């Protein structure tokens, strides 16, 4: 099993919250995706370079299989390449496949993790969160500047800096108790470092319910998805 398979083929990757998040995303084309407001984009799923609905649907189904069934990166790439080539497309190169797979699965994973971390009982016992970048040669400078920084769990910093904070971002967030913060001599901050920001299009927290957008002119599938999610939240 290669490094990517080892990262994603984990038992905690199949928890219910991650699957629920990804199921709520709606396949749309890239041109539509990038015209959607930042806070509403969490409802959409897209793959640059592909516009046919059946192609996007297959990408969506294969990512969902990774979450629900634990399919690995290698299985994702093999299945997608077989399908793409049967439709007359060139198969995915390793970098492109990794980008699509990692970004979507990691986003769903972090959304589920966020829901677990914000459970009231967990918040009482572990009221601080620490940003954790992988800290290797592939880590982006802005993400590295956030590495190890601690903020209150309810800090607005996490509205912007809850990962993933870019394509193929591997960053995560750890919960900490007050005792751990004190024992490790950590400083609890209230603001992120100045003059740094997440990568473009990754400056919102996908786990948070978006504000009520102006739905005029939005694609009908997204309007329906938004309304359905609204109803589910009210009923739940």
What is the total number of structural domains? 2
How do the strands of the widest beta sheet line up side by side? Answer: 4-3-5
Ends apart, CA distance between termini: 40 Å
Order of helices and strands: HHEHEHHHHEHEHEHH
The overall average pLDDT, rounded, is 82
Estimate the global geometry from the Cα principal axes. Answer: globular
Please bin the fraction of helical residues: 40-55%
Oligomeric form of this entry?
A: single chain
**Poorly predicted runs:** 1-14, 209-213
> Which class best fits the helix and strand makeup?
mainly alpha
Largest sheet: 3 strands, antiparallel
- Strand percentage lies at 5-15%
| Count of DSSP H/I helices | 11
Q: Could you give the count of β-strands?
A: 5
Indicate the radius of gyration in whole angstroms.
Answer: 18 Å
Structural account:
This protein is mainly alpha-helical and 236 residues long. The chain has two domains: 3-114, no CATH class; 120-183, no CATH class. It is built from eleven helices and five strands. It has a three-stranded antiparallel beta sheet. The longest helix is centred in the middle third of the chain and has 24 residues, at 94-117. It starts with a helix and ends with a helix.
């Amino acid at each position: 099993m290669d490094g990517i398979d080892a990262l994603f083929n984990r038992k905690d990757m199949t928890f219910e919250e991650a699957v629920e998040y990804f199921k709520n995303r709606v396949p749309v084309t890239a041109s539509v995706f990038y015209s959607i407001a930042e806070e509403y984009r969490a409802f959409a799923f897209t793959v640059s370079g592909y516009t046919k609905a059946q192609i996007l649907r297959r990408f969506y189904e294969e990512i969902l299989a990774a979450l629900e069934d634990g399919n690995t990166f290698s299985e994702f790439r093999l299945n997608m390449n077989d399908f793409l080539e049967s439709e007359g497309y060139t198969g995915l190169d390793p970098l492109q496949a990794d980008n699509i797979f990692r970004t979507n699965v990691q986003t769903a994973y972090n959304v589920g993790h966020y829901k677990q971390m914000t459970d009231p009982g967990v918040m009482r016992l572990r009221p601080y969160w620490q940003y954790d970048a992988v800290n290797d040669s592939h880590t982006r400078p802005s993400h590295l500047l956030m590495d190890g920084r601690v903020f209150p769990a309810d800090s607005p910093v996490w509205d912007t800096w809850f990962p993933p904070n870019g394509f193929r971002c591997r960053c995560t967030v750890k919960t900490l108790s007050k005792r751990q913060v004190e024992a490790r001599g950590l400083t609890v901050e209230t603001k992120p470092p100045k003059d740094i920001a997440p990568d473009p299009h990754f400056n919102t927290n996908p786990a948070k319910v978006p504000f009520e957008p102006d739905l005029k002119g939005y694609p009908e599938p997204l309007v329906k998805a938004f309304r359905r999610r609204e109803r589910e939240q009210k009923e739940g």
